[in-house]
């Protein structure tokens, strides 16, 4: 997937400025496709030049005007074409998993130090799970009233929640094994 596709999806969900788009990436789509503010602005500029998005100047009281981007017909065509392409399974790259395997060749002090790293990593993912669950409660309070688009957004969030729960279970297992050796 290219950043362009993630931007098109986000702008179809809701038009917005580059700043608003970057904030959305931080809150939701960024867990599945990351991009810096600079990358988003650079790609938006290129997408506008290519006719995939259009920008409308929007006045703001007490603040500078902003440019609100939305998807053009050409952008919709590009996204539709991409949605019809087959998806290949991604190769998983997980630094921590390689470190855990490498711990078999380290001494007891190294394995003990890894406990701290795995614990820190686990804490971060526990916080992320809490944010996902809070976002679910905030954004999807009554799932019986969701539109098709909202149901699809919710199912992606549920996938993130399931992934975080699975990861936390695995990290607990890793910590149990490391503590046997420490």
TrEMBL record:
<dbReference type="InterPro" id="IPR005149">
    <property type="entry name" value="Tscrpt_reg_PadR_N"/>
</dbReference>
<dbReference type="Pfam" id="PF03551">
    <property type="entry name" value="PadR"/>
</dbReference>
<feature type="domain" description="Transcription regulator PadR C-terminal">
    <location>
        <begin position="92"/>
        <end position="179"/>
    </location>
</feature>
<protein>
    <submittedName>
        <fullName>DNA-binding transcriptional regulator, PadR family</fullName>
    </submittedName>
</protein>
<dbReference type="InterPro" id="IPR036388">
    <property type="entry name" value="WH-like_DNA-bd_sf"/>
</dbReference>
<feature type="domain" description="Transcription regulator PadR N-terminal">
    <location>
        <begin position="7"/>
        <end position="79"/>
    </location>
</feature>
<dbReference type="InterPro" id="IPR018309">
    <property type="entry name" value="Tscrpt_reg_PadR_C"/>
</dbReference>
<dbReference type="Pfam" id="PF10400">
    <property type="entry name" value="Vir_act_alpha_C"/>
</dbReference>
<dbReference type="GO" id="GO:0003677">
    <property type="term" value="F:DNA binding"/>
</dbReference>
<dbReference type="InterPro" id="IPR036390">
    <property type="entry name" value="WH_DNA-bd_sf"/>
</dbReference>
<keyword id="KW-0238">DNA-binding</keyword>
């Amino acid at each position: 997937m290219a950043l362009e596709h993630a931007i098109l999806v986000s702008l179809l969900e809701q038009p917005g400025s580059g700043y608003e788009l970057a904030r959305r990436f931080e809150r939701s789509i960024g867990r599945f496709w990351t991009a810096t503010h600079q990358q988003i602005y650079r790609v938006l500029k290129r997408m506008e030049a290519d006719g995939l998005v259009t920008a409308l100047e929007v006045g703001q009281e007490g603040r500078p005007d902003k440019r609100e981007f939305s998807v053009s017909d050409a952008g919709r065509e590009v996204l539709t074409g991409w949605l019809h392409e087959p998806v290949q399974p991604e190769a998983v790259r997980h630094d921590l998993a390689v470190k855990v395997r490498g711990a078999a060749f380290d001494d007891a002090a190294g394995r003990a130090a890894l406990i701290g790293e795995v614990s820190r990593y686990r804490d971060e993912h526990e916080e992320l799970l809490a944010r996902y669950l809070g976002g679910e409660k905030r954004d999807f309070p009554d799932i019986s009233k969701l539109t098709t688009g909202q149901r699809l957004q919710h199912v992606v969030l549920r996938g993130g929640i399931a992934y975080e729960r699975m990861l936390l279970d695995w990290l607990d297992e890793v910590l149990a094994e490391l503590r046997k050796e420490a």
